[in-house]
Design brief:
It is built from 9 helices and 9 strands. With 282 residues, the chain is of the alpha/beta class. It has a single domain, classed as NAD(P)-binding Rossmann-like Domain (Rossmann fold), CATH 3.40.50. The strands form 2 sheets. It has a 7-stranded parallel beta sheet, sandwiched between helices. Strands 5-8 form a two-stranded parallel ribbon. Helix 1 links the parallel strand 1 and strand 2. Helix 1 crosses helix 7, helix 3 packs parallel to helix 4 and helix 4 packs parallel to helix 5.
């Protein structure tokens, strides 16, 4: 599990939202942090008061050279990495038919392949230490889906599946995995950070179109507090038995339970058909 004696946190996507608040809390506790963003001018204010305990580095998670550089700098400055927080990511609004290939693939590059690449770069250090925690920021949208965000859900479902397998593989090596699943929070996710398809098909106005409007209207009014979310992540990281999944916010909890009930309903209703698909003597 994570070393608690002056741990080193490497956090992606620190310019806004969860990444920014988590970096601030980590440094305020007296710990060390690698504070990254595509534009480092947006995070220098976080690090400035903390001198050598904060390392600021440019990082676009789709850039392999920058990933290698950040990990090397972290190892050189601090000698270790105790927690990797894969927070960088963004959303995209479009009905499935409206999705634009280039935009969809770009989001997968950041939300999935970027997360994989930096995780693979950090794991050799954690394996050598025989300790560490990988925090993958997913979403309640990694458990349940809505109109207009199908491609975003696809990236987060991918993160969930990868994280479950990773947790099994690294547990014997002393490394933990924590999947964070926020509901709606007052971050830039639904505001400046979100992208939308230019393609709009009238037949989806009542479903994807309506959800686009609702998402924009809710921006800045969400119930979730990013500072409290960052503290919850730290609390889970410090736990003797961190959960595999940490839901954040009441809405996330309600939606997750609703999804579980829906799945169980289908499984139970179709049990005879399901079991009947086996060979009779199996």
């Amino acid at each position: 599990m994570m070393n608690r004696d002056n741990p080193v946190w490497l956090i992606t996507g620190c310019s806004t939202g969860f990444g920014r608040e988590l970096a601030k809390l980590v440094l305020e506790r007296g710990w060390r942090a690698v504070v990254t963003a595509r534009d480092v001018s947006k995070v220098k204010d976080i690090a400035e008061p903390y001198g050598e305990r904060a390392l600021v580095a440019p990082l676009d998670v789709t850039n392999r050279a920058q990933i290698d550089n950040v990990v090397a700098q972290a190892k050189q400055r601090f000698g270790r990495i105790d927690a990797l927080v894969n927070n960088a990511g963004y959303g995209y609004l479009a009905a499935i038919e409206e999705g634009e290939d280039r935009e969809v693939r770009a989001m997968f590059e950041t939300n999935v392949f970027g997360l994989v690449d930096i995780t693979k770069a950090v794991l050799p250090i954690m394996r050598e230490q025989r300790s560490g925690l990988i925090v993958n920021v997913s979403s309640i949208g990694g458990l349940t889906s809505f109109a207009a965000t199908g491609y975003y859900h696809a990236t987060k479902y991918a993160v969930e599946g990868l994280s479950e397998s990773l947790a099994t593989e690294v547990a014997p090596l002393g490394i933990g995995v924590l999947i964070v699943e926020p509901g709606p929070f007052r971050t830039n996710w639904a505001g400046p950070s979100i992208k939308q398809s230019a393609t709009v098909i009238d037949d989806y106005a009542a479903t994807a179109g309506e959800r686009r409007k609702q998402t924009e209207a809710r921006s800045g009014k969400q119930a979730g507090d990013p500072v409290r979310a960052a503290q919850a992540i730290i609390d889970a990281a410090l736990s003797d038995k961190p959960p595999l999944r940490l839901l954040l916010g009441k809405t996330a909890l309600e939606l997750a339970r609703k999804k579980l009930d829906s799945m169980r309903g289908d499984f139970d209703a179709w049990e005879a058909t399901t079991v009947g698909a086996d060979y009779p003597d199996a």
